[in-house]
Fold this sequence. Notes:
Blueprint: H1 2-5, H2 10-28, H3 33-47
Helix pairs in contact: 2-3
Amino acid sequence: MNRILKNWDFARIVRLLLGVLIAIYSISSQNYIFLVFGGWLLFQAIMNISCCGTARCYTDTKYKENIYGDQIKKYKPD
Length: 78
């Protein structure tokens, strides 16, 4: 329950609003194929998951290496 009620960021609010608007549009226009897409966006917003899952496209910065100008070799075609 804590997962549903807390940590509402901008992307989660946008998914919720788009899901509601697409669901209302699909019902009013009787084009129910869009209801699946609207329902999926609502599910993502409520459960706080994204297309990447709950990891939110996590990249590990622990192993980040700096690249310096002397390490880059110029391309010389043969």
